[in-house]
UniProtKB/TrEMBL annotation:
One of its GO terms (cellular component) is membrane. This is Multiple inositol polyphosphate phosphatase 1. It comes from Rotaria sordida. The keyword Transmembrane helix does not apply. GO terms for molecular function: acid phosphatase activity; bisphosphoglycerate 3-phosphatase activity. Pfam families: His_Phos_2 (PF00328). Its EC number is 3.1.3.62, 3.1.3.80. Keywords: Hydrolase, Membrane, Signal. It catalyses: 1D-myo-inositol 1,2,4,5,6-pentakisphosphate + H2O = 1D-myo-inositol 1,2,5,6-tetrakisphosphate + phosphate; 1D-myo-inositol 1,2,5,6-tetrakisphosphate + H2O = 1D-myo-inositol 1,2,6-trisphosphate + phosphate; 1D-myo-inositol hexakisphosphate + H2O = 1D-myo-inositol 1,2,4,5,6-pentakisphosphate + phosphate; (2R)-2,3-bisphosphoglycerate + H2O = (2R)-2-phosphoglycerate + phosphate. Belongs to the histidine acid phosphatase family. MINPP1 subfamily. SUPFAM superfamilies: Phosphoglycerate mutase-like.
Length: 550
């Protein structure tokens, strides 16, 4: 993928329209000419950058227009003001790219500015993966320890829409408004937008990885290789398991593409049989399914949030941009006729807007700019944040910490946690020479495991039975716990002289996090834990064998 900055090169020199590039001085012209020569670009205002930088710019809020081969920054979205770093002709392409990267990231307000009001939106668990910046430094292992294994659980990457109801129910309401001549100018565009969006989703396949989803896992695998290169050079086997869903299989393949370098292509991949009891357990756990269907308290809490006055205010704001006021009043009062068979989700105006939000929440997974910004077209920042909160509440109550005293939402992850520990033990005690145990699954897998791990200040706080989960009283956020391609990694280290001394470090989305509160790291500021101490701390959460499911 190539990244270009583009401007209107056909402007008349005498034009009074304010285009910053018209005022480039001789020094900046020289710098741009240098870039042209070194980076092999066609014209002076086309700057080719590598894929890593392009993805970093996306993560930092600079919106890119992409197709399968080329990514462009839209001309009307950028303002290039000042380029004051001296660029020498003898610099290599890599040096210039690194220089540009540091300026874009650390001082991007002086290079490109994109209004947060225009583009910043909240997508909850559909948020694309954002890996740590280059400024984030992992702490080194203690002296004398070397990596011997890594354990991983990863959610699949960014995907297309998997549900078939959101678009159909939204179009049903739209058609009714069209018949009554109750559409606003924006509302007139909604049907075409939905059809374009769904065509792109259907073309790839419902619930399948997009190009961005593939890049997410390729990048995670590549960074793992670079971080623990000595491990993969000395070991020659990698165990891979998926839930069996195609998007997890494809994620695994992209991860491996990033992990395995051509010069080390003798690594043997052990493709394990798909195990839904380990990696798709929410569908097979009888206790959990019964709880979700029958427990009244979860439904009450979620209904309280859906019926808050603020929820209704935001829902009506969204609707009034699409439909005329009279029609919105009909929706609020329930005075509209829709076949009950077609009303699978919609019961009121809030449900209508939730359908629209859920449909377009996968928009950032799209490569085309007009599709990627689809949610931003119909929701402002505050509205998207509120409906992301509603989605977070559902994940929190049904799969996460939930209500104090309720453990069924994450007890089903015990076999998976047990598998992590038993795989570490196998790595230590046998000569299988397996460098990595890689597991690819879903948000419904990673959220319960993260909760079971009780990561301090992250996944360890349930709400009191009399309280309701809010952003003010709890740190749990769907876009941090389970964004697309979310991952939990355990790095296993062994002392070179005393092989019985085993340390574990946990990374969550490639950043260091701590194990539960009663686990003591080597030192107060260390992220490395003694493996035997971890087993003792989590002993009450482990099963006698992984086969003990349900």
């Amino acid at each position: 993928m190539a990244l270009y900055t583009t401007i209107n090169t056909s402007l008349n020199e005498n034009s009074t329209q304010d285009y910053p590039y018209q005022y480039l001085d001789k020094t900046r012209n020289m710098h741009l000419m240098t870039l042209k020569n070194v980076l092999n670009i066609d014209i002076i205002n086309h700057i080719q950058l590598d894929e890593r930088l392009a993805r970093n710019l996306i993560a930092k809020g600079i919106i890119l227009l992409a197709n399968t081969a080329t990514t462009y920054i839209r001309p009307n979205s950028l303002f290039i003001r000042q380029f004051d770093r001296k660029v020498q002709f003898e610099q290599s392409k890599k040096a210039i790219q690194n220089d540009l990267c540091s300026q874009f990231i650390s001082n991007k307000s002086n290079i490109i500015s994109v209004s947060n009001e225009d583009y910043k939106r909240y997508y909850s668990t559909k948020t694309p993966y954002e890996y740590p910046s280059e400024n984030y430094i992992l702490s080194p292992p203690p002296t004398g320890y070397k990596p011997i294994c890594v354990q991983l659980l990863a959610r699949h990457g960014s995907r297309t829409l998997s549900n078939h109801d959101y678009d159909l129910e939204t179009l049903t309401i739209w058609q009714l408004a069209k018949q009554k001549n109750m559409l606003t100018p924006l509302g007139e565009q909604l049907k075409e937008d939905i059809e374009l969006f769904m065509h792109a989703n259907n073309h790839l396949g419902r619930g399948e990885l997009t190009q961005i989803g593939k890049e997410e896992h390729f990048g995670i695998g590549n960074r793992l290789f670079n971080r623990l290169k000595s491990l993969f050079i000395s070991s020659n086997k990698i165990s891979v398991m998926t839930s069996g869903k195609k998007r997890t299989v494809d994620s695994a393949q992209e991860f491996l593409n990033g992990l395995i370098k051509a010069e080390f292509n003798n690594i043997q991949i052990l493709n394990e049989i798909s195990n839904k009891n380990l990696l798709y357990f929410h569908k097979s756990c009888t206790n959990y399914m019964t709880f979700i269907k029958t427990n009244p308290y979860i439904k009450i809490k979620l209904n309280i949030i859906k019926n808050l006055e603020q929820t209704k205010i935001y829902a009506r704001q969204v609707l009034k941009r699409i439909y005329k006021n009279e029609f919105v009043e009909l929706l609020i009062n329930g005075n509209y006729n829709i076949d009950p068979i077609e009303k699978k989700i919609i019961k009121n105006e809030v449900d209508i807007v939730l359908c629209l939000y859920w449909m377009f929440s996968v928009a950032p997974a799209q490569s085309q700019f007009n599709l990627a910004k689809m949610l931003a077209k119909y929701f402002n920042e505050e509205e998207s944040k509120w409906f992301a909160y509603i989605n977070d509440a559902k994940g929190f109550y049904e799969k996460g910490p939930s209500i104090e005293g309720t453990t069924v939402t994450y007890d089903m992850a015990k076999p998976l946690l047990t598998d992590f520990f038993s795989s570490v033990s196998q790595c230590i005690e046998t000569n299988k020479n397996i460098a990595a145990y890689l597991r690819f699954a879903h948000a419904e897998t990673i959220i319960p495991l993260a909760t079971l791990l009780q990561i301090p200040g992250f996944t360890d706080k349930a709400v009191h039975p009399l309280d309701v989960y809010t952003y003010e009283n709890n740190q749990w956020r769907g876009d941090k716990i389970a964004p697309m391609a979310a991952n939990i990694q355990w790095e296993i280290y062994q002392h070179e002289n005393n092989h019985n001394q085993i340390l574990v470090r946990m990374l969550y989305n490639e950043m260091e996090v701590r194990f539960k509160q009663d686990c003591k790291s080597l030192t107060p500021d260390s992220f490395f834990y003694d493996f035997n101490e971890l087993k003792r701390s989590y002993a009450d959460l482990l099963l006698p064998s992984v086969s003990d499911v349900n």
